[in-house]
Request: fold
Amino acid sequence: MTTRARAARSGGYRCTECDHRSAQWVGRCPGCQAWGSLEQIEAPRAAAGRTVVAGAPSTPARRIADVELDAARARPTGVDELDRVLGGGLVPGAVVLLAGEPGVGKSTLLLEVAARAAARTRVLYVSGEESAGQVRLRAERTGGVHDELYLAAESDLESVLGHIEDLRPSLLVVDSIQTMSTSSVDGTPGGVTQTRAVTVGLTALAKERGLAVLLVGHVTKDGGIAGPRVLEHVVDVVLHFEGDKHSALRMVRGVKNRFGPADEVGCFELRDEGIVGLPDPSGLFLGRFGSNGDNVVPGTAVTVVMDGRRPLLPEVQALVAGANIPSPRRAVTGLDASRVPMLLAVLERRGGLKLHDSEVYTATVGGMRVTEPAADLAIALAVVSAKRDVALPADTVVLGELGLAGELRRVHGVGRRLAEAARLGFTRAIVPQDAEVGTTGMKIIRAASLGQVMSNLR
Reply:
């Protein structure tokens, strides 16, 4: 019998670090390059001829109308923007995984949640990365010190379970899941086996006791959640915490939610005194308006994009500089770098705007990233405004996807977008010809093509 056949008969080998499978043992894992991490997998025994015997149910089955709803209702966390993403708050027994890059503010946000919850119930904050003193210093800075908020610097699951037995908290925060380990399985902390075992253990405890659990998760260099993919299936809610290190804006985006919408977005601003929710974040992305709109400059346009279910009004800026430049630059910040050159080509070919020998710079305000095609018309008009040195009206928003033939295509949710724009004081809107606007109270200017819009701006 060959070595491969014997390995297949024995179940092969599995890496305890990255879960890579191999037909034969090697000293170094081909997947993660770890030394001595492959262990043999026992092949499952054949179940032929076995019968399944009925067991005693753990709880009797009940009519669906007789099931109590109180245990499944969400409790507000006290942080409104997080409650928006969670679908109203934390459900008892729910396990929430919050993932994000280092330094984005995950620990600051969850410490704020823990402090707000401690005003109503007992909370246990477990830190595997910082000492209790370091967490206390951050709590002092953000005003998160409370008598019912308990800190524990632990990285062992069994020790955490002991704290839970002693304190009987209603909320558990674990920072982070990759630092936790358990003696019941082999592997190093942060590895696939350990991370899976700790998450499964905490999830089982949460369901058994009705304990809400918040887990902090690391991300890989590609932006995915570190650890096995099974983590996202085990937990009830998966949230991504996003933000640019050069901007104070932070966004919590729902990826999976068993208790609410999975496409909501919460906006926060990271400050010296902590993290603050932004119920109306559009002001961060608008820089063109003074008290009377008298500081509007050429090269700016405002549009409305949908981030999940939330309409946001970003400002798009453009600058066209120079002429007869042999190799002009095309710089893009905050926009789709592959789509902006296409829009410039459409402007030159379908709009008659001479841009091939000029440098064109496009950007967004406030660090927001806009990739939705609904912003095409705003980008195009910002470039037109910059080239002609004529400012667009301060009370106007523009919406529309631009095709290669210069036609304006409809975008979804125009009524909801314009309602948000009207709430912020805009009175006119340029939209595609067939857009379903609804009742907004705004003056609607419909256009079928880019050329029609440009002719109206002369």
Notes: Residues 1-8, 289-293 have pLDDT under 50 and may be disordered. The CA atoms of residues 15 and 22 lie 8 Å apart. DSSP finds eleven helices and 23 strands in the chain. Residues 192-209 form the longest helix (18 residues).
